[in-house]
Specification:
about 140 residues; alpha+beta; Nucleoside Triphosphate Pyrophosphohydrolase; seven-stranded mixed sheet
Length: about 140
């Protein structure tokens, strides 16, 4: 139980033509965990960091971005990890403000695209469906 990896995850979202969309990472082909799948940005919390500090460090490392106005969304546990997820509404300039440093690229998804995507981390899918349930109304 104590050996599970503790993670902080970043979920940017915005409304596009009235549709709620989330921005996800296509993981690197050679990633240690879940290669070439879509998932949330973020990663492991380092010794001595708070979840919030880990979130900010991971987002900076992966996107060269410092998010503002993040809100705590949910706590998710699997057999492999414990994940604290933060959401952040971004504007139409978000993709111009970031630099994808880790992962192949980022992409916006609507709920129906999340459901249809075969190359999605299952833990991410569960979190995303919970997000759409709460924020998509």
């Amino acid at each position: 139980m104590g050996s599970r990896r503790k993670n902080a995850a970043f979920l940017p979202y915005r409304f596009v033509d009235g549709h709620l969309c989330v921005f996800l990472q296509r993981r690197d082909l050679d990633a240690k965990r879940h290669p070439d799948l879509f998932g949330l940005f973020g990663g492991g919390i380092e010794e001595g960091e708070t979840v919030e500090q880990g979130l900010m460090r991971e987002v900076k490392e992966e996107l060269n971005y410092s998010p503002k106005g993040c809100k705590y969304f949910t706590h998710y546990e699997s057999s492999e990890h414990i994940e604290d997820v933060f959401v952040c509404e971004v504007d139409e300039n978000f993709e111009n403000e970031i630099e994808i440093i880790e992962g192949q690229y980022g992409k916006y998804f609507k709920k129906e695209e999340i459901l249809a995507e075969k190359e999605m981390m299952e833990g991410a899918r569960a979190i995303l469906l919970e997000f759409f349930e709460k924020y998509g109304k």
